[in-house]
# Entry
Amino acid sequence: MRSASIEIIARVEAGAFLDDVINSFFSHRDIPDSMKGLVYTMASGAVRHKGYFDWVLARLVKREMKKDVRYLFWISLYQIAHMKKAHYHVVMEAVEYGKRHFSPGTAPFVNAVLRRFIRERDLLVLPENPVTALSIEKSFPRWLVSRWVARFGHEETDRLLTLLNEPPDFTLRIDLARITKQEVVALLEAQGVRVREGKYLESALHVDKLGPVLKDPLFLDGLISVQDEASQLVAQALPPSRGPVLDACAGVGTKAGQIRGLFRNTLVIAMDNDMGRISKMKEKSGLIVQGDSLQTPYRAQVFDTILLDAPCSSLGIVRKHPEIKWRRDEREVIAFGNYQLDLMRSLWDNLRSGGAMVYSVCSFEPEETVGVIERFGREKEFLLENPLPFCSGTEYFLSLPHVSGMDGFFIAKLRKP
# Structure
């Protein structure tokens, strides 16, 4: 399984998204179902913790190494540090892999480095600077740790990073118009899937594994979908609408399909500017349109409701997509905030007086959340409404992963006078 994991890591390091690579890999390679979970765990764990592993290697290795050898180290170090497997087995398998796939000198090199890590792991001293030390220990970019420590404090940031490093929690959305939660629970438990209820929504159901779910007729027939509970809350924030609803940045249509299920007698228009994403939308997403929300093709005051689920840094979902944390920098967070504000400006004229725009992002960074709303409020008049019933006394919904147990998310509802 090392070969598969190394190939997956190599593709991710070249710029692909982890989920896309793994889905493609499992679809086109003959990997037993019983081994897919292990391949995913090893590849995602290596990507998640590579910052710490590279810090370790910089202290234990004084020579250049090929990328694939480095990826072998990441996987092996992950197994030693985070998996319940005898260390000598990890070393033996890594050495055997080195013998088969690399030059003759690689196997003894791998053996020596891994054995030294096992011996000296507790002796490796982190830097004195607390932010740098936390960044290395939790394997997050220093700029991001520094930003969160300044905002939340060191202790709370430690809790946040610890949570984001845990294997992801998978959540399903049940189409309650077609099947009950009790029926879904019974069918999944019969497959050996452990479940627990969502925090806020009857439609949300957490599961301990996805493999059996993705093969189940429930999923294949669209009775259940994979969607985090925080993401499901976005459609719940939309008010009932007499006229058409625009999902302005629909992506692959997940939320548009949910909206259509909630408002069955309402026209839902799913718009995106990317044909690749549009091609993945299903008929249940509603009327599918290619269009750019920065240059909206619609006339003024045509929509009662607009959902702006805007492109963002996606830093709220790094638990599921660990590669994202290595690809962002602070300038991008600011750039995304500017882009989101431009989208809001462009779409506002399409909203009727009395209509509502729901703004959401899978981020909890101020520049992309409250900052966008505050900046827009200096340009336009609107009433900021409570977006969800349980948000009593607040003007928006903000999900912090270590507090909510869900993805990081922000939801606001803007009512046009």
Observations:
- The longest strand covers residues 351-361.
- The CA atoms of residues 60 and 120 lie 10 Å apart.
- The radius of gyration is 23 Å.
- The mean pLDDT is 94.
